[in-house]
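Input (structure):
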C-alpha cells in the first residue's frame, strides 16, 4: 500500500523543473537532519515532503535544502505557518496563525535575515499583543515600542466605541423622525384651534355685531379651548410613546432566541414512516403473510423541563382487515434528548428505546412478532409561530435481541407547544 501511495503522489506533483526521480515523496519521520541539510536513506534529499496523515504537500527539498513554499498545519486542518525558502534560507513573507485561525504575526525575510521594520504581534482573540522593531537583523528592546502598542490599542478601542455610538445615534434619529411627524400634526391642529379662537374673540369685540352674551360665557369658551388643546397635546405625546415602545419590542423580537415551551404534542405528518416487515419463512406458498409492511400514524408527547433537555414518548397503532388479511400492530417508545437553539431553530440529539409488535392472521394461519430496539436519534425543528414548529429527525435501529443495525426512520413532525418559557 505504501508503494502505491508513493507512486500516486509522485505522479500528482511532477513538474517540468524536476524529473520523476527528483520528486520522490517522503514523510517527515523518514527524513533526518544535519544542521539545515535533510537526508533520506543516507543521501541529501531531493523531493516532496508529504504529511503522513493527510498526504498534503508540506514543501520541496533540493540537494538537502528547503526550496520554495513550505506550509505547516494544525491538527484541525487550519494553517499553522506559511513560509518561502531559497536554498535553505527564509526568503520572502513568513506568516503564522493560531489554532482558531486568528493571525499571530507576519514577518519579511531576505535570504535568512529579517527585514528592517516594525512588526505587530496579535493575541488569539485578535487584540494587539506587542510590537517588535528590527534593524540590521536584530530585535530592539520592546520598551521602545510600548508607547506604540498602547497608542494602537487606544485607537482600536476608540474605533469600536465610535461604531457603537454611531449605531445608537442612528436608532435615536429614527425615533426622532417618528416624533417629528406626530409633533407636526399636533402643531397644525393647535394652529387651527388658535385661528378659531381668534375669530371668536374678533366677533365678540366687534361693536357692529349684536352678540347677546356675557363675560362669563366668553371665559367658558376660552377654558374649553385650552382643555381641548391640552387633550390633543397629551394624546400626541402618548402616541409617540406607543410608537417608541412598538419599535423597541420589534427590535427585541428580531434578536430573540426561540426556546421550546414545557409541553409539546406532535404528529408525524408524512404518515408513511417506521415501516416494519414480517416474513413467513415456514411457508413456500405465496400469500400476504410472506411479506407485510405497515405505516403507523405516530403521536408524540414532548416534556421539556428546561431549554436544553427533553423527555419524549411516542405511540402508534394500526388495525386493518383487507381481503382476509387481519392486522393489528402497535408501537411505543420513550427517549431522552439534549437540546440547543440557534435563532428559531431547535436542535436535539439523544437515544430512545422502541418496542414494536404485530399480530397478523390470514385464513387459518396466525403470525405474531415483537421487537425491541435502541435507536440513536438526531433532529431539528423550526418555530414558524409562537406555539408551532415543524421538523424532522433520523435514527438507527439497533436490535437489542440480535444486535442488527439498520437505518430506522425519517419522520416529519408537526408540534404544538403549551405553557410559557421565559
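Output (sequence):
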Amino acid at each position: 500500500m505504501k508503494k502505491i501511495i508513493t507512486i500516486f503522489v509522485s505522479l500528482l506533483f511532477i513538474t517540468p523543473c524536476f524529473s520523476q526521480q527528483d520528486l520522490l515523496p517522503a514523510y517527515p519521520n523518514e527524513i533526518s537532519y544535519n544542521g539545515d541539510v535533510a537526508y533520506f536513506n543516507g543521501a541529501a534529499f531531493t523531493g516532496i515532503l508529504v504529511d503522513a496523515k493527510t498526504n498534503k504537500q508540506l514543501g520541496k527539498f533540493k540537494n538537502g535544502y528547503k526550496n520554495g513554499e513550505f506550509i505547516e498545519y494544525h491538527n484541525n486542518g487550519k494553517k499553522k505557518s506559511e513560509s518561502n525558502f531559497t536554498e535553505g534560507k527564509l526568503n520572502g513573507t513568513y506568516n503564522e496563525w493560531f489554532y482558531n485561525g486568528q493571525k499571530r504575526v507576519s514577518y519579511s525575510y531576505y535570504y535568512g535575515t529579517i527585514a528592517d521594520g516594525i512588526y505587530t504581534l496579535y493575541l488569539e482573540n485578535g487584540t494587539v499583543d506587542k510590537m517588535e522593531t528590527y534593524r540590521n537583523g536584530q530585535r530592539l528592546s520592546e520598551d521602545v515600542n510600548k508607547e506604540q502598542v498602547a497608542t494602537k490599542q487606544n485607537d482600536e478601542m476608540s474605533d469600536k466605541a465610535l461604531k457603537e455610538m454611531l449605531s445608537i445615534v442612528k436608532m435615536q434619529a429614527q425615533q426622532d423622525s417618528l416624533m417629528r411627524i406626530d409633533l407636526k400634526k399636533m402643531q397644525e391642529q393647535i394652529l387651527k384651534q388658535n385661528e378659531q379662537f381668534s375669530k371668536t374673540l374678533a366677533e365678540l369685540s366687534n361693536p357692529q355685531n349684536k352678540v347677546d352674551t356675557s363675560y362669563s360665557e366668553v371665559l367658558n369658551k376660552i377654558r374649553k379651548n385650552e382643555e381641548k388643546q391640552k387633550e390633543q397635546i397629551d394624546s400626541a405625546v402618548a402616541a409617540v410613546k406607543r410608537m417608541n415602545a412598538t419599535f423597541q419590542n420589534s427590535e427585541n423580537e428580531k434578536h430573540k432566541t426561540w426556546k421550546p415551551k414545557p409541553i409539546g404534542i406532535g404528529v408525524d405528518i408524512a404518515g408513511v414512516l417506521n415501516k416494519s416487515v414480517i416474513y413467513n419463512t415456514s411457508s413456500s406458498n405465496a400469500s400476504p403473510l410472506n411479506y407485510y409492511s405497515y405505516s403507523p400514524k405516530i403521536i408524540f408527547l414532548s416534556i421539556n423541563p428546561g431549554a436544553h433537555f427533553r423527555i419524549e414518548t411516542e405511540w402508534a397503532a394500526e388495525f386493518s382487515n383487507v381481503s382476509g388479511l387481519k392486522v393489528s400492530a402497535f408501537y411505543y417508545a420513550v427517549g431522552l434528548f439534549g437540546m440547543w437553539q440557534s435563532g428559531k431553530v431547535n436542535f436535539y440529539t439523544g437515544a430512545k428505546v422502541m418496542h414494536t409488535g404485530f399480530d397478523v392472521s390470514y385464513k387459518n394461519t396466525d403470525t405474531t412478532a415483537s421487537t425491541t430496539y435502541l435507536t440513536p436519534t438526531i433532529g431539528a425543528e423550526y418555530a414558524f409561530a409562537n406555539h408551532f414548529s415543524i421538523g424532522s429527525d433520523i435514527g438507527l435501529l439497533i436490535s437489542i435481541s440480535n444486535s442488527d443495525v439498520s437505518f430506522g426512520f425519517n419522520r416529519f413532525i408537526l408540534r404544538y407547544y403549551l405553557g410559557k418559557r421565559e
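Notes: The chain has three domains: 2-151, 163-254, 263-418. The radius of gyration is 40 Å.
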